[in-house]
Amino acid sequence: MTEKTKLISPRLPRGFEDRTPGDIAAVGRMIDTIRKVYERYGFDPVETPLFEFTETLGKFLPDTDRPNAGVFSLQDDDEQWMSLRYDLTAPLARFFAENFETLPKPYRSYRQGYVFRNEKPGPGRFRQFMQFDADTVGAPGPEADAEMCMMMADVMDALGLGGKYVVRVNNRKVLDGVLEAAGVSSVEQKLTVLRAVDKLDKFGPEGVKLLLGAGRKDESGDFTKGAGLSDAQAAVVLDYIGGKPPAGNDGVTELEAMQTLFDAAGYGPEKIKIDPSVVRGLEYYTGPVFEIELTFKVQNEKGQDVVFGSVGGGGRYDGLVSRFRREPVPATGFSIGVSRLANALKLTGNLGSDEPVGPVVVLVMDKDQTARYQAMVSELRQAGIRAEMFLGSTKNFGKQVAYADKRNAPAVIIEGSQEREGGILQVKDLVAGKQAAQAITDNAEWKAARPGQFEIKREDLVAAIQKLLSEQ
Q: Structural domains in the chain?
């Protein structure tokens, strides 16, 4: 490389993140816990590709000649547009429709993987993030929706979040009935009313009343324009959030049926509760909607105590699969935001952040003896023990041990000329050495004590390391 050659700056694109071994291991344990609950409920895994044809992802994409707003898209050789999936549900709908004749119905599946949003990134808002979904396609009754809610409660309990969450449930049919009774017809006004209802926990009934009317000014003086409802119209909505659902509404009947199932299965209101303030997807959901809210408090960027909030949600979406087939296909599902849930578990001490145990490292004391060292590594690996021979260029003993420390190795194996002649090995227990280091402050005393180091016969290598690892 010449002096004039410009070096590339190693930069991570905004909205993306690198994951370290500790992060991967911790999230892997969390995902494994979720998976076991899903499988206990009879759900099976399926995996769809990261790319789908853009038309497959549906009406929730912008209708433009180059559909790159909100999603990441590219044109194939045959000029067909493909996009990175932005959720795991639209690909499932395509998969179910494409394999309709062979799949069991109802079809119960779970999917886990990355999704992509071509949006402006911000704090806690990424362009690539992981979701973990479960869906039942082909079951029309509220029993399937109730099962989703109970499964989510079981997931939270399995993750150690018992008493720190609630699964909140509502029904889009109820919300639609309230809007109709209030005489709200325009899509824009419906959205504004529903956003106001969604703020019930944050602002209380009085705050919602302001947002249903002219608008609300917050403590900073910022003004949020309201829905512009009359007092009579607003009264209908306020009666609803006060506990008076519309009479003769199918959504109310479905919620009552779900509540009966919750009661029968022993899921009390501390785990699952009907909540009129739950609002999700105006054009997406067609029946019951639900979300998991974590109820413990955290501090926001302003240092204020706030409830952690939602880590997942879902509901019934009977219209999505029907985009691919003429007959109606009912469906219900749930999506967990993996990164957000992992952050919650970290805050509650339920994630576990320990670095995974590294490999046993066989040090290279004499370069002309690498075949002997490689034989040791192979013996350990064949016994199911993570192991590696030091492959760096340094001959320095201390630097090789420092490398093993950085790898979080449980031990190093030492064979110099004296050990080789005596048919022995030195094993340095790095875990015990670190513990002893906290008690020994004098360097000379440290060298004399050689804490954690012991001698074994060469033929006892595997048995000695197995014993050491079990004790650690």
A: 21-171+249-348 (3.30.930.10), 360-471 (3.40.50.800)
